[in-house]
Design goal:
With 601 residues, the chain is an alpha+beta fold. The protein contains 13 helices and 36 strands. The longest helix has 19 residues.
């Protein structure tokens, strides 16, 4: 393999293929960083290597992975970045479902494997794990793709950074087109800028890119790349965006002991104890420069980079607890990573905990992809102690039914965290309700009454700057809430009241997985839309060949709800089979008011 095999050090070699493939040798075994077409396997004998144990992927692009089937056939364990696993081992489904017409998603996600290949698992971000004979630290470095990672390995006294396509050479990237994730957007360029800064903080001695030659002066190479990208971004933006400051100073004080993460989507907050501990309120997408215009896993990237500044600038020595205000992904998407890497406990209000722990049960927008274990459930209306602070959680329906306000005193100020309950437009407060979040018509009357009872000095929220409460503002919120309720009652039917949600039933769990022939129990909740008690009947609609329980009846109070249990026995396999609840209340048949989805194995 003349000219294609280059020795980086006594134990590290580069094979020129469709991308640079790095061979890390330990005795007669090796691990590979990326794979290309698989040409590295043909070089093993020349290097005295008998077996490759693992392939670690920096990202999913086809030039990195097109030969992976050779690795799988050889029994090599394949490890993918967590955000991009489905673009490797489930890419067949991706090819069938990816939108092509009227497409404003500019990511190069179609530059993927043509046929999927199984993987052994995902690499542990922000942690070191032993692969073969090497300890490998996985550093998230989004930019070229949203899910890209860099591997840091100390070999023979030098820290090597296997950077994928983060950069190509000093001041150069392999592709600018890859960094445009959305129409007119600069998200990937901003992410590349920040990732270069994050990587520089780890002081690598040698950068080893997927394309291009090894780079010795890593600090200068990364700094020049950041400088050029900042200028390119500035030419595109309507306002100045200092990404150096974004990385160096992500936290803005609300009070001396309460900080707002201004780089996080949505805002998260850190309550600081004089003991050196920190409690976080929400943790979604840290240090984000924007997200692609789709909400799939490969487009959503949790990070933990801002925690280092908490430690370095604010004397925090441990992150102990995170308390979410509600279940939405931009408020909880990074909590799982917090638990895994930092050992943070999740203390969730009882109105939020069920959705975190079992998201597939609910038919709701903005659900995170994975269950989030809850270490402590906080009863609504009760206080809990955390170091020198006493905090209270209160039910706060409106933006979503599954939400809570968190009140506490810090530095002489009464603070209430309201999540996304209210939006702000200058000095105007806007009632931020969403119907599919299970908004109820009177919610904003109740939330204004809560704020009036708490009388906060400062309200902190998810997407708007903290606001000092002025005289008369809370009273105006109450007036707005009452008028909102009146308008809904004026606009919606009087005689048939399905409330703000507009449906007469819902089924839980909304999504299920069951073996063919096994019985599945579902719970159907029915709403009585009439001002009189009524008897309701539920009959299931199921696919051909399935068995469903007989129709069931329930007595409903006036404008009230009741739940009934039903069973189905599926016949599969099939993905997302539909089961519907056909509802009759009194003499009125409302039809198939709710559905549930079932994967049959």
């Amino acid at each position: 393999m003349p000219g294609r095999l280059v020795e980086i050090s006594a134990r590290v070699f580069r094979v020129r293929d469709t991308c640079n493939v790095y061979v890390l040798r330990s005795g007669t075994e090796a691990i590979l960083i990326d794979f290309g077409s698989g040409a590295a396997l043909d070089a093993l004998a020349e290097l005295g290597i008998e077996r490759v144990t693992d392939v670690l992927l920096t990202h999913h692009h086809r030039d990195q992975v097109q030969g992976l089937e050779r690795a799988a056939d050889a029994g090599v364990s394949i490890w993918a970045p967590p955000v991009e696993r489905e673009l490797v081992d489930d890419v067949d489904r991706r090819w069938q479902s990816r939108q092509i017409d009227n497409d404003y998603d500019l990511r190069q996600d179609r530059f993927s494997l043509l046929e999927q290949v199984p993987v052994a698992g995902t690499v542990p971000e922000y942690r070191t794990r032993r692969f073969g004979g090497f300890d490998v630290f996985t550093l998230p470095t989004p930019g070229h793709t949203n899910g890209s990672v860099t591997y840091l390995v100390d070999v023979d006294g030098r820290r090597l950074a296997f950077t994928g396509d983060l950069l190509y050479a000093p001041g150069k990237v392999w592709s600018l087109a890859a960094t445009q994730w959305s129409y007119t957007g600069v998200e990937g360029q901003a992410a590349t800028h920040v990732s270069c800064g994050v990587l520089a903080g780890h002081s690598p001695d040698l950068l080893l890119p997927s394309h291009g030659d090894a780079i010795d002066d890593s600090a200068a190479a990364l700094a020049l790349t950041r400088k050029r990208l900042q200028e390119l971004i500035d030419m595109r933006m309507e306002y100045s965006w200092d990404l150096d400051a974004w990385l160096a100073r992500p936290w803005a004080p609300v009070t001396p002991h309460l900080l707002r993460n201004r780089t996080c989507l949505a805002h998260s907050y850190a309550l600081l104890s004089d003991s050196g501990a920190a409690l976080l309120i929400d943790w979604g997408y840290d240090l984000t420069g924007g997200t692609p215009p789709v909400s799939e896993r490969a487009a959503r990237r949790p990070l933990l980079q801002s925690l280092g500044v908490l430690r370095g600038e604010y004397g925090v020595d441990r992150i102990e607890v995170v308390v979410p205000t509600h279940y939405h992904d931009d408020h909880v998407g990074g909590i799982g990573l917090l638990r895994e890497v930092e050992g943070v406990e999740v203390w969730a209000p009882e109105s939020v905990a069920p959705v975190l722990e079992d998201p597939q049960r609910f038919d709701l927008p903005c659900l995170w992809f994975d269950p989030v274990p809850v270490d402590r459930t906080l009863p609504l209306g009760e206080s809990f102690r955390w170091h020198e602070y006493e905090l209270t959680v209160h039910h706060l329906p409106g933006h979503t039914l599954y939400a809570a306000a968190i009140s506490f005193d810090v530095d002489g100020k009464r603070i209430v965290a309201t999540g996304d309950q209210y939006a702000r437009d200058g000095s105007r407060t806007i009632l931020n309700y969403q119907y599919r979040n299970r908004f109820r018509i009177g919610d904003y009357v109740r939330s204004a009454e809560l704020l009036l009872s708490l009388r906060p000095d400062v309200v902190i929220s998810g997407h708007w700057h903290p606001w000092d409460v002025q005289a008369g503002e809370l009273e105006q919120l109450l007036a707005d809430g009452r008028r909102l309720e009146e308008l809904h009652r004026e606009l919606l039917p009087d005689d048939v009241d399905f409330a703000a949600e507009g449906f007469g039933a819902r089924i839980e769990p909304y999504r299920s997985e069951v073996a063919s022939g096994d019985r599945l129990e579902l719970e159907v909740t029915i709403r009585n839309p009439f001002e009189r008690p009524e008897r309701a009947t539920v009959e299931l609609t199921v696919p051909d060949g399935w068995v469903a329980s007989e129709s069931v009846e329930a007595r409903l109070p006036s404008r009230g709800e009741a739940a009934v249990r039903v069973e189905v026995t599926p016949n599969g396999p099939v993905r997302r089979a539909r089961v519907a609840a056909d509802v009759t209340v009194g003499e009125t048949r409302f039809g198939e008011q709710a559905e549930a989805l079932v994967d049959v194995l």
